[in-house]
Design a protein that fits this description.
This protein has one domain: Sandwich (Thaumatin). β6 and β7 form a beta hairpin. Strands 2, 4, 5, 6, 7 and 12 form a 6-stranded antiparallel β-sheet that branches. A 5-stranded mixed β-sheet has the order 3-1-13-8-9, with no helix packed on it. It has 260 residues and is mainly beta. It contains 5 helices and 13 strands. Pfam families: Thaumatin (PF00314). This is Thaumatin-like protein. Keywords: Disulfide bond, Signal. InterPro entries: Osmotin/thaumatin-like_sf, Thaumatin, Thaumatin_CS. It comes from Stephania japonica.
Length: 260
Amino acid sequence: MPPIPPPMLMQLLFFLLFSQYFVSGTNTNGGTNATTFTFRNHCSYTIWPATLSGAGSPLLPESGFELKPNGSISLDVSAPWSGRFWARTVCSVNNSSSASGGRFECSTGDCGSGRVECNGSGGAPPATLVELTLDGYGGLDFYDISLVDGFNLPISIDVQGSKSCKSVSCAADVNALCPAELSVVSDYKSVVGCKSACKAFNEPRYCCTGAYSSPSTCNPTNYSNFFKKACPQAYSYAYDDSTSTFTCPTGLNYHITFCP
């Protein structure tokens, strides 16, 4: 599983108990502190969104699903909860696999489960991430879009029920702008993803590790600046907190749109 960036790790520390959860129904523990996530596919092609819960939060009933163009699906989640969402692209069943029925595989965001459901596994970079903490520190929701694991398709987050909560998006076609050394190319010679410099080069200065493992030593690079220019509201590297983390009162609902 790719590491959850430091901003999410800080929020995960506030959760020591599991929350109950439900899908498109009534809160199973009788409470009312629930959030609805509505996933919408505005891409011209089918995608396979996936969910991953953070430490101390239960897996959601839907860990992976197919979403056709113009399709939508809603998941209801009881707070407190932390986790991430992303979409897998260019997916198919590899019938050459010895596994019964073949193995489900994706060019970007693949979680390695061999199935549409990810069942607690994270997505392989590159993948555009939506990260959320519900009912976190101070009774707030924390949310962001992260390109720390690279980019595979545009995403937006829209908070429902409050005009004061900021919408966040990474709407640029980063794949079309991606430097050749970061590009992930499909069998059809098209760019389907843009790797982070950490994934591409595995050097501490790009990964914020070793001597570069603190905010004072890990600074923006030419590559993180490329991502930041394309998507100013998104995390471009691990310590890009000041312009990339957003908060809202807990108990509101969210629309997650792919290809907004």
